[in-house]
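Q: I'm building a small set of examples for a reading group on sequence design. Run inverse folding on the following structure and report the sequence directly after it, with nothing in between.
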């Protein structure tokens, strides 16, 4: 009788389903995947409608402003995203949930204060930014209008992280990824516009709607406030500060290529790159879905000393992500020109950029949840170091490549930054946690 191969053994899903944590991981990932598919479709549809409604030049202004707002909202959360998930998940795992409200309220207060301050500074500096950096006609008004959405965006993302810590995965994903693009898409379809300024108004309205949705879900999901005890502000601050650096530099990796295009190239080039980048990121929706489930479980298992469980869940998550992402990546690599033509015929020229970006995203997925593994197990400084190195790689490559190669140079810089960040994460996980996420076939 033939003995089962190691690969077959690792794919014994029935055995996994018999274990509560693994069952939650698999079934939760499926539920999260469905919501994330909805989010990916909504975002893709929004991008298509934006480019086809207002054209490449106005779309470039819109995407550039939206990128800056995303960076401001991220900086305003001062690294609290993963800290909120970690401490709420650990509190729930302890069985008491006595500090959940304290963690949440401190995160909301700190985020609101910092984001309002950053938004005010950017409002006052918008004219200088456009005149001395981007020099794009019409950008100042688009950016100033969209700035009103930054505090709402930062706050609804804190709500999403808190829901994730409570294991309300579908609700967390709806708040973080679905409501905003669906709201913008519906507004465009119901009240068509022809310029980026009007679209900025829609972003503000949709951000308010998303925050209201997040608040409603939180009130429905949070434990009773009675008997709550204060959470240490010093501990929360000590945890989120290294992650703040991570969050900011991660935004540099994610968006610096687009911003540098805005400095050296036209608004149309920004639109070509932005749509290619967002299309390539369709491959990573499974990464987000799995991370939403896995992150609080990593934190809970680590808090109880269950490191074998952390390893096993990490390797299972890689298998799930590869099973879903490989077909999507192949589709992008085989039909890049057709996919880009959906945004308009002029976008076909960004097909080579899409291929480069898709390869970078696939490496991101194949390495697994290395960032969350490190941050949920007390290795925040390792995440920070990895991200800083990758951020430098991205910016340096962008500075050297974009002036000569435009959109292609931006794509290479971004892909190299994403790949280096995650490969460094693989090294750190192997060094500090004792297993290699690239060896996903091992049990």
């Amino acid at each position: 009788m033939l003995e089962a191969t190691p690969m077959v053994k690792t794919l014994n899903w029935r055995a996994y389903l018999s274990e509560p944590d693994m069952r939650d991981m698999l079934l939760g990932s499926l539920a999260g995947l469905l919501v994330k598919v909805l989010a990916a479709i909504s975002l893709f549809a929004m991008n298509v409608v934006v480019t086809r409604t207002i054209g490449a030049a106005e779309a470039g202004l819109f995407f550039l402003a939206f990128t800056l707002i995303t960076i401001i909202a991220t900086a305003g959360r001062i690294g609290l995203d993963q800290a909120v998930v970690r401490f709420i998940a650990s509190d729930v795992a302890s069985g008491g949930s006595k500090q959940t409200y304290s963690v949440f309220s401190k995160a909301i207060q700190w985020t609101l204060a910092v984001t309002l301050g950053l938004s005010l500074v950017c409002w006052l500096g918008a004219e200088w930014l456009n005149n001395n950096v981007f020099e794009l006609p019409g950008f100042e008004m688009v950016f100033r209008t969209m700035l009103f959405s930054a505090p709402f965006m930062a706050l609804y993302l804190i709500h999403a992280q808190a829901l994730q810590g409570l294991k309300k995965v579908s609700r967390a994903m709806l708040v973080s990824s679905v409501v905003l693009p669906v709201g913008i898409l519906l507004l465009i379809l119901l009240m068509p516009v022809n310029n980026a300024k009007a679209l900025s108004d829609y972003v503000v309205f949709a951000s308010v709607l998303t925050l209201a949705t997040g608040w409603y879900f939180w009130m429905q999901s949070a434990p009773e406030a009675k008997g709550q005890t204060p959470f240490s502000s010093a501990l929360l601050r000590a945890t989120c500060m290294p992650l703040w650096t991570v969050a900011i530099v991660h935004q540099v990796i994610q968006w610096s290529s687009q911003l540098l295009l805005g400095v050296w190239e036209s608004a149309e080039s920004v639109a070509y790159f932005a749509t290619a980048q967002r299309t390539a990121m369709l491959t990573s929706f499974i990464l987000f879905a799995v991370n939403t489930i896995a992150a609080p479980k990593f934190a809970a298992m680590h808090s109880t000393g269950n490191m074998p469980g952390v390893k096993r869940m990490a390797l299972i998550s890689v298998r799930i992500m590869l099973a879903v992402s490989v077909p999507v990546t192949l589709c992008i690599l085989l039909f890049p020109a057709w996919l880009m033509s959906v945004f308009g015929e002029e976008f076909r020229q960004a097909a080579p950029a899409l291929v480069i970006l898709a390869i970078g995203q696939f490496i991101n997925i194949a390495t697994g949840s290395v960032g969350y593994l490190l941050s949920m197990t007390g290795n925040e400084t390792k995440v920070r170091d990895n991200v800083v190195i990758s951020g430098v790689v991205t910016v340096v490559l962008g500075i050297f490549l974009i002036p000569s190669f435009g959109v292609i140079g931006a794509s290479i810089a971004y892909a190299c930054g994403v790949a280096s960040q995650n490969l460094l994460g693989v090294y750190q996980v192997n060094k500090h946690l004792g297993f290699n996420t690239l060896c996903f076939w091992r049990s």
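The chain is about 80% helix and 0% strand.
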